[in-house]
Design brief:
By secondary structure, the chain is an alpha+beta fold. Helix content is about 20%, strand content about 35%. The chain folds into two domains: about 200 residues, Lipoprotein localisation LolA/LolB/LppX (outer membrane lipoprotein receptor (LolB), chain A), CATH 2.50.20; about 130 residues, 2-Layer Sandwich (Phosphorylase Kinase, domain 1). The protein is built from six helices and 15 strands.
Length: about 350
């Protein structure tokens, strides 16, 4: 049996609650499902939903466990003059936690909501690039929350990217479930399951006056990395990566300004169409207060990964370099190692 099929047997559907049909489905033909259709479904309609996010983690002793987050999400089409959809992702309330702990979790979740929505699960970042690096396979008709859905598998054409199982709502095309599997072992790595779902006018009415749409702050986007660097106060302090992650292409170039100390951070986003790798470079950041950095020319890659992301950082020559990606994205490791060799001159 092929390795890219090992994971399919591990997937089970949730119980159906009600039946809803539509005469004009977004996904009329399951054999014609494309990354462009999925991208349109996620970004060009109103949605108001509840979902449960499952992440597998390993503690310091090697013990594996699953952690779940109950979330609420509102999505709206792009505002006039904009090109990307609006979203408000928030942690569900009233879960019976201690009030102080619930407030702490809400604060942490709010701080990370942009990353969680934009990069924390399956998402078509670039339909054309996704079609070059992945293949869609129709797996059958199912029901999700009583609604007709198509189950599809997303298989990488090559490389180390993981596989996905999506349950796509027939009427809207929205992914009602996104499950990530290791392409070699078939192990389930992460999953998001929609537990309540509204779309169109009903979702717009639910979000009206309630949604706190995410807006990037202290950030300016530029057409190219060079344009972003040239806009900095000290352009000569930045160094562009000489290599991109394998199979990835540059997606966005931005400059971030820290409102507290004025430090500038160059942020580059790379994608293979689905997976993302983020690169952040901050001249003038303080050296990490860890023993390995005690020497004047010392360097080491530090791992600050958490449940949903891999975060690798090193400091050299007065500059902090940080790379982020999915918790199982091997490209983050390779990209960071290549960058370290480039910066210290050991290619």
């Amino acid at each position: 049996m092929r390795a890219d099929r090992l994971f399919i047997a591990a997937v089970a559907s949730l119980a159906s609650l009600a039946v809803a049909q539509t005469p004009t489905p977004h996904l009329a033909d399951p054999q014609a499902i494309s990354f462009d259709l999925i991208h349109q479904a996620e970004t060009q309609n109103w949605y108001s939903l509840s979902q449960f996010r499952f992440c597998r983690t390993t503690d310091a002793t090697g013990l594996e466990q699953w952690v779940g987050l109950a979330e609420e999400l509102d999505v709206a089409p792009p505002a006039s003059g904009e090109t990307t959809e609006r979203f408000d992702l928030r942690l569900a309330t009233g879960l019976g936690l201690d009030p102080v702990e619930e407030q702490r979790q809400q604060t942490v979740h709010t701080h990370h909501r942009a990353y969680l929505y934009q990069h924390g699960t399956f998402r078509v970042q670039d339909p054309q690039l996704a079609a070059s690096n992945y293949a869609i396979h129709y797996e059958g008709d199912i029901q999700r929350l009583g609604r007709p859905a198509y189950r599809v598998s997303i298989i990488p054409n090559s490389g180390s990217a993981n596989c996905w199982i999506l349950d796509l709502d027939v009427e809207t095309g929205y992914p009602m479930s996104r499950s990530e599997y290791d392409q070699n072992s078939g192990e389930l790595l992460s999953m998001i399951t929609v537990t309540e779902f509204a779309h169109g006018a009903a979702a717009q009415a639910a979000a009206d006056g309630v949604a706190n749409w995410w807006v990037p702050t202290h950030r300016t986007d530029y057409p190219t990395p060079t344009a972003a660097i040239n806009a900095a106060a000290r352009p000569s302090t930045f160094k562009l990566p000489s290599k991109t992650p394998d199979g990835f292409a540059l997606q966005t170039s931005s400059m971030l300004i820290d409102p507290l100390n004025g430090n500038e951070t160059l942020m580059l986003s790379y994608t293979d169409g689905i997976e993302s790798v983020l690169f952040l470079e901050t001249p003038g950041a303080p050296k990490p207060n860890v023993p390995v950095y005690s020497g004047p020319d010392a360097y080491a890659i530090l791992d600050f990964s958490d449940l949903t992301s891999k975060q690798l950082m090193f400091f050299y020559g007065g500059v902090q370099y940080l790379t982020l990606g999915g918790s199982d994205n091997a490209q983050v490791d390779t990209f960071t190692e290549n960058l370290l060799r480039q910066v210290v001159g050991k290619r």
